[in-house]
Amino acid sequence: MKLNRFAATALLCTSLIAGSAFAATIDKPECVAPAKPGGGFDLTCRIAQTGLKDQLQELMQVTFMPGGIGAVAINMFNTTRTDDPNAIVAFSSGSLLNIATGKYGEWTENDVRWLATAGADFGAVVVRNDSKFKTLAELMDAFKQGESTVVVGAGGSVGSQDWMKAALLIKSIEKDPKKMRYVAYDGGGDAITGLLGGSIEVYFGDVGEMVSHLGTGTMRVLAVMSPDRLPAPFAEIPTTKELGYDAEWTIMRGYYMGKNVSDDAYNAWVEKFKAAYATEEFAKIQKEKGLLPLNMAGKEFDDDVKKRVDRMRGIAKEAGLIQ
Amino acid sequence: MDTVFAGLSQGFAVALNPINFFYVIIGCFSGTLIGALPGIGPINGVAILLPIAYSAGLPPESALILLAGIYYGAEYGGRVSSILLNVPGDAGAVFTTLDGNPMAKKGEAGRALSLSAVASFIGGTISVILMTLFGPLLASVAIHFNPSDYVALMVFAFTCLASLVGKNPIKTLLAAVMGLMIASIGIDANTGVARFTFGIPDILAGIDFLVIVIGLFGMGELITLVEHQVTGKLAVLPVGKSFVSWKDLMVTKWVILRCSLLGFFIGVLPGTGASVASAVAYGTEKRIAGKSGESFGTGDIRGLAAPEAANNGSAGGAMVPMLTLGIPGSGTTAILLGALLLFNVTPGPLMFVQRPEIAWGLIASMYIGNIALLIINLPLVGFFARLLTIPQKYLTPLIAVLAFIGVYSVVSNPFDLYMIIGLGVFGWLLRKLGFSLAPVILGVVLGNLFEDNLRRALSISGGDWMILIESGRSIAIYVLTALILFVPPLVSSLRRRAATNAATSEA
């Protein structure tokens, strides 16, 4: 206890001496990954941890709060830690889809403060190297014969964002996603095993996780679901859009804070993120973790997220996930 | 084969480098401790130490050697609290409690600890040897293991469950059904519908296996201890200076060998890990033991050796798909895979060509690590056994605190702490009513895998059940299931007939 008080005083002094550029200082910064270690949320928090290293006085702690596909964390930040100025929580567009489809119960996009992005990833249509589908058009032709002619799979349940990628693609040719032969695996690793083992013919994955498999010659990416062509090593891969299918899926990774966090504290974080975005170091970290740059923070980001959730609600309704 | 030996000798050069050798020892030692603490298992040990290793600026091969040491070290350590306290040290050590703890209660804690250390060593070493020789080959077989093959494997596992039916088959079946029901809690992957969540967001993704293990077994045991203390029934455990004998090893040699292989193969399969391996090993051995298997659960050394050989075998097996294909075979290897990516090393077949010092260094370090673990663990047996001399009034709260910290460090959700208490009371009640908890755990472990894979298989076939017997692998497993079901009773009845014949001919 004594030590803590001493540390706090020492920290206060340092920050005073350093000249507080911002109204609020961040004390014992913490990033909450609402999952078990090792997954996408862990990665999101590690980006904040290494990316903000130079902006924060202390190294950010990463803590894990699994349970309920992220519902536990959003619950916590809406009940007990609503004004915690030192903690940020990782989320992805999968969390936004859960909000859109009402999986988080009473909590909506208006119950937290959307803070900043970590980066973006995009959906990828992947087949085995020796697949009979050489192009996306060939695959789509098969789907036109009937939704159930092709066995597809991904790492999430029906209604998750992994399922959504497949559903969007099938909807783009006016077919019914509910008639798909969709195999739900427990995470991307298992689904890739299923693809390589021949259980499924098409895997709907993410571009980022494909980086380590590109050079091995075991799998081919038929198309990426990004709005524009991606930089190398994906520059050769066409987008779904340019091939004439209106199916885009951006996986956004970022952070939110509790709803009652003061403007001072929120803005202090926004400034830290903006400062980090300006460094080459941050771009390097994004690349290392398989993400592409998508840098947004503060009000601009908050608006963008709310728009996204709205759009997802529309898609979910069309796909028959919600009434 | 030449490339294997060339690679391995390069690997030993890396692993025997004094600094790396030091990391092997540190990893194994801290892994043992992490495994021994109730609640804290390999997955959190590795997850906590990964950022430390990274920020300390270790070269990738050293970091990986250290982290892997913690991983298989923890599988060794998990047995300690299972045997001594009847509280599983981690999820893979549940089945070690069944015979390990009764041995400790009989004053044979030292014998149980040392025997299980040897079983762990053999399991671990066999799996490293198999990994070295057949790694890439096995990995390509493992990925062709499709959902319907998993269904067959689960049918096999459930058949082993039948061997756990003790004096009261109805209670065993009821317990298994309870396990299956617990397994179905959470969002259903195939429809996206929440099942049995009653609007509680904390269990939308199901109940964490660790929470179930620590709750039902750990807390249930502690409540039983407190009850015995209050009612004055608490017996002081005798601490003998027992140690594993050559005879013990001879009795268990085939058990250990079989279970090491079984554990390794189950570990290689993505999605099944130490808990499935030890459960299947225990059930199979009890089946094979036939009539003499009735002593399983009362402190039979075979029942102790089986799950320990299997869970260490599976730790090595799980490394195979990670190293050769870049696919994690278990939760912990998923973190190790993340560690490789963090160091800009691409796992998969190319790693053996591009970064042989990492791939082979890691494999070689596992040979050294397993020997180190045996050497570390055998002298520590006496020290661990003396834990039992701590008065119960100090020990019980201490374990409770450790279990709470352990679980909280994984789940960070206070709700799960209440759940542990609730499950503890439930486990205690079940025991009072004469239920065995092992079938509950088996139901949870196998139920999820069985349901998920059955529904995956049926989604693939579009609802045609024939897919379940389409592959040769599935059929082979069903044949094996039939063998394990019918051969042991047949053999023992033949033996009995031979014995009576002999008796009559003598007379």
UniProtKB/TrEMBL annotation, chain A:
Residues 1-23 form the signal peptide. It comes from the Bacteria. Keywords: Signal. It holds the Pfam family TctC. PANTHER family: TRICARBOXYLATE-BINDING PROTEIN (PTHR42928), UPF0065 PROTEIN YFLP (PTHR42928:SF3). Belongs to the UPF0065 (bug) family. This is Putative tricarboxylic transport membrane protein.
From TrEMBL, chain B:
Keywords: Membrane, Transmembrane, Transmembrane helix. It comes from Desulfopila aestuarii DSM 18488. Residues 22-442 form the DUF112 domain. The chain crosses the membrane at residues 20-40, 52-74, 112-138, 150-166, 172-191, 203-226, 255-282, 323-346, 358-382, 394-411, 417-450, 471-491. This is Putative tricarboxylic transport membrane protein. InterPro entries: DUF112_TM. Coiled coil: none annotated. The lineage of its organism: Bacteria, Pseudomonadati, Thermodesulfobacteriota, Desulfobulbia, Desulfobulbales.
